[in-house]
Amino acid sequence: MHATARRSGNKLKHLVQVRDHELVVDEPEVAGGTDEGPDPQELLAVSLASCTAITMEMYAARKGWDIGPIEVEVDYLPAERGAPTRFDMVLRLPDELTDEQVQRLQVIAAKCPVHRTLDGEVMFDERVERVRIAA
User: Fold this and answer.
1) 66 CB contacts (<8 Å, ≥6 apart)?
2) Which candidate, 20, 18, 79, 67, places its Cα nearest to that of 47?
3) In the list 14, 27, 81, 94, which could disulfide-bond 5, CB 3.0-4.6 Å?
4) Residues 6 or more apart from 31 whose CB is under 8 A from it?
5) Global confidence as pTM
6) Mean per-residue pLDDT for 129-135?
7) Cα 105 from Cα 97, distance rounded (Å)
8) Which residues, other chains included, contact 44 with Cβ-Cβ below 8 Å and sequence gap of 6+?
9) Residue of higher predicted confidence among 10 and 4
10) Which strand ranges, in their side-by-side order, compose the sheet holding 3-7?
């Protein structure tokens, strides 16, 4: 997987290229941005919520379950000194599902790739490449 962020115009707005998709990422005005898109930390919550929902949908499809509409809500509190990063996640599932289906979906939700990444050890390989960028 590969993503590239490039500054777009003034302030903190960036265009992020992922495969054939382009996303606008920015900071709110109170942080010095122009609020033209979600900020990077909001995208982390978006990633967890959407990955969880998609993982449950894919699992249900493999099982042949028609689970109807589902919703995943994520609140994200970044780490502060002495306190861990905190994600509060609510899975909203149709009342018609059986207890067994709900239990299985809850287990599967915790196995989405983004959840596993955030829950596991993360390593970074970083380097600087100096380049001349045309104006």
Assistant:
1) 60
2) 18
3) 14
4) 12, 39
5) 0.89
6) 82
7) 10
8) 76
9) 4
10) 3-7, 14-18, 21-25
Q: Which two tokens stand for residue 95?
A: 């009342």
Tracing tokens 């920015």 back to the chain, one arrives at 26
Could you give the CA distance from residue 7 to residue 11 in angstroms, rounded to a whole number?
8
Rounded to whole angstroms, how far apart are CA atoms 5 and 25? 9
Tokens of 109: 């939700």
Is the pLDDT at 10 greater than 80? The verdict is no
What ranges make up the beta strands (E) of the chain?
3-7, 14-18, 21-25, 71-77, 86-92
Would you call 103 helix, strand, or coil by DSSP?
helix
Per-residue pLDDT at 55 exceeds 80: yes
Task: Write down the pLDDT at residue 96.
Answer: 95
What is the structure's pLDDT at 135? 64
